[in-house]
Structures are given as C-alpha cells and as structure tokens.
Amino acid sequence: MTPEHPDTPTFATWSHENLVRFATEAYLKLQDQHELIQHLRHLVATPPENAVETFDEWFKRRYGCTFDEAYMTPGIKTVDAMMALTVEIRRYVSEVVKENTDARKTD
Prior knowledge:
The chain has 107 residues and is an all-alpha fold. Helix content is 68%, strand content 0%. It is built from four helices and no strands. The chain has helices at 16-45, 55-63, 67-71, 78-106.
C-alpha cells in the first residue's frame, strides 16, 4: 500500500507495543475531536438569543455558500475545517452581539 502523504510513518516497521500506544492515543484524540465537532455543530444549529439569522444563513449571506460547501470538501483536513469553523463562529457571534448592542442603544 502506498501512503497518501510523503510524511506517513512506515507502520510495518513499528513494534507491537508502539503500534498499540499510537492506536490508543489516536483513538483518544479522535474521541476529543468528535466531541468538539458535536459541540460546534450544536453552536451552529442554535443561534444566540435575539439573532436575526442562523449561522448557516449568515455564512451564506457573507460568502455565497454554506460552511460545508466551503470547507467540508475533499482535500481540506478536518482539523483545518474545525479551526475555520471556530473562527467563523466567533465572527458570527461578534456580529450578533454588536447588532444587539446597537439595537439597545437605539431603544
């Protein structure tokens, strides 16, 4: 089997002990990432109080496509997509907070 990436380790040469340790660490890391993804999905699906639009609506208005269309595509690493999602959620929440603050000032 040919590795996809040139920096892929040659696992065939690893000892059983090292493979078990690596697999355990990888599994735990995947579980953490899964929990983070679920948390971020919840944030995306639940607009902040008094938000005019959901994250998906905001993202599409801002960029012309959904987040999934932009980042959940072949060739983009999951970790990079999750970092981008974190940044975009912060932008979205900042705009919602600013809109709510501005609305209170005009009341």
